[in-house]
Amino acid sequence: MTPVPGPGTFPIGVRQANCGPELSARGASVRGMENTAKQNTATTASVKAVSAAAPTAGPGSRSASTAAPAAAAPVLGARALNRATLARQLLLARSPMSAKEALAHLLGLQAQNVKPPYYALAARLDGFEPEELSRLMADREAVRIVTMRSTIHTHTADDCLTLRPLVQPARDRELTYFRKGLVGVDLDRLTDLARDLVEAEPRTMKQLREALLVEWPDADPQSLSVAARCRLPLVQVTPRGLWGRSGQVALTTAEHWLGRPAQETPEHETSVMDATVLRYLAAFGPASVKDMQTWAGLTRLRDAFERLRPRLLTFRDERGTELFDLPDAPRPDPDTPAPPRFLPEFDNLLLSHADRTRVVPADLKGRSWTGNQAHCVLLVDGFLAGLWRLADRTLTVEPFGELTKGQRAAVVEEGERMLAALHGGTAYDVRFGTGVAERG
Question: Do you know which InterPro entries this protein is assigned to (predicted)?
Fold first, then answer.
């Protein structure tokens, strides 16, 4: 039985567009946005302050003084939400954060393939060099692991050990789609055996599958390997994921790779969930409960938001949906300039809200895909405006509509900055086309 993907998940067989060679980036901050880094620092402080001050109310509780209906909250339009989200995502101005700080602030980066996390950081950080992220992975300070939306993410080691247990309910739900292939399989026994196998030495999925088939020869081979992945926090060991290196996917447990265990007590789970809500708002807010559920691939997060409600601000969007936010988080003027940005396929900016119109105009819904292939995307004025790819020493930009002369010049400048940072001394063309952006 083929599993039915939930919101924000990608079914087996989804491919990613080849955006070209790996990128590094060294970009200057956007004129007029010098305060963005300070705002992001203030947001981090706000998360800590709100977390420390959050009341210990029971699940679902809300006081009469703080349970104001959404209709009474200020309205944030699409541009206001866009600019707020871009600021949190470090896309209004490149941040001086280190790669490790950015990984933590953003709660990880989508990493279905090796290159996207490098592209994502190149678009967000001032002076980013790909070797910085590569070193984090080589030193086991960052890892590749399946977390949100049942997709591979690059996380800091700390977040790997906290976020992976938090999304275990989603992995349990995913495993039910494969139950027909696991008839007669003792899942506890499978978990123990798989752990012993991958901790003895990192194993590919094929090797793990073959070893498990010895124990359960009548089971479905794919279901056995999926069960191991869902029941255990399996990380992809290096050299997979390193800059300029190749390596097949070999797996071991996060605890074994990092040399320390995750904490999974019920009390710890509640505190981590509340802290994660605050961190999600710092990186993706203002946002609704459903937005965070889409990002995490989880359900029933209302209780956590209600516990934190007394310490949060509430707004509503133009459809009347209630949005939560941190009091001191940046909410720039809707007319704040937003420079062009080249983002990789599956960038979290486009996948972390139930309502994506804050970045994807309604008339462009689905345009970043062709069949089962996801494309790299271009932002102009903060919104999805086209696609791009690197091939044959050419950066091809495929706008969805007409760009002004000034916009085209800014896109070319951003593209040349990206190319120069990666291929200094090598001639590259920047061209505008239409083929990739046409509907499939």
Answer: AlkZ-like (IPR009351)
Q: What is the per-residue pLDDT across 91-126, written as a single tens digit (0 to 9) for each?
A: 999 999 999 999 999 999 999 999 999 999 999 999
**How far apart (Å, rounded) are the C-alpha atoms in residues 398 and 405?**
15
Nearest CA among 280, 300, 304, 276 for reference residue 290: 300
Peptide bond connecting 286 to the previous residue in cis, omega within 30 degrees of 0: yes
Are residues 243 and 132 in contact, defined by beta-carbon separation less than 8 angstroms?
Answer: no
Whole-number Å distance between alpha carbons of 222 and 399:
40
Alpha-carbon distances of 408 from 32, 119, 124, 188, 363, rounded to whole Å: 20, 21, 20, 58, 21
- Structure-token pair, residue 133: 């992220």
Q: Which of 72, 65, 52 is nearest to 310 (CA)?
A: 65
Nearest-angstrom CA–CA distance, 228 and 11: 18
Closest CA to 360 of 82, 90, 134: 82
Query: Where in the chain are the domains?
Result: 15-24+334-432, 36-56+69-161+266-325, 168-258
Burial class for 42, CB neighbours closer than 10 Å (0-12, 13-18, 19+):
middle
User: At residue 147, what is the residue type?
Assistant: T
Phi and psi for 383 in degrees, rounded to 5?
-115, 155
Q: How far apart are CA 79 and CA 359, in angstroms?
A: 9
pTM: 0.84
The three state secondary structure string of the chain is CCCCCCCCCCCCCCEECCCCCCCCCCCCCCCCCCCHHHHHHHHHHHHHHHHHHCCCCCCCCCCCCCCCCHHHCCECCHHHHHHHHHHHCCCCCCECCCHHHHHHHCCCEECCCCCHHHHHHHCCECCCCHHHHHHHHHCCCEEEEECHHHCEEEEEHHHHHHHHHHCHHHHHHHHHCCHHHHCCCCHHHHHHHHHHHHHHCCECHHHHHHHHHHHCCCCCHHHHHHHHHHHCCEEECCCCCCCCCCCCCCEEEHHHHHCCCCCCCHHHHHHHHHHHHHHHHHHHCCECHHHHHHHHCCCCCHHHHHHHHHHCEEEECCCCCEEEECCCCCCCCCCCCCCCEEECCCCHHHCCCCCCCCCCCHHHCCCCEECCEECEEEEECCEEEEEEEEECCEEEEEECCCCCHHHHHHHHHHHHHHHHHHCCCCCCEEEECCCCCCCC
Distant-in-sequence, close-in-space partners of 270: CB < 8 Å, separation ≥ 6? none
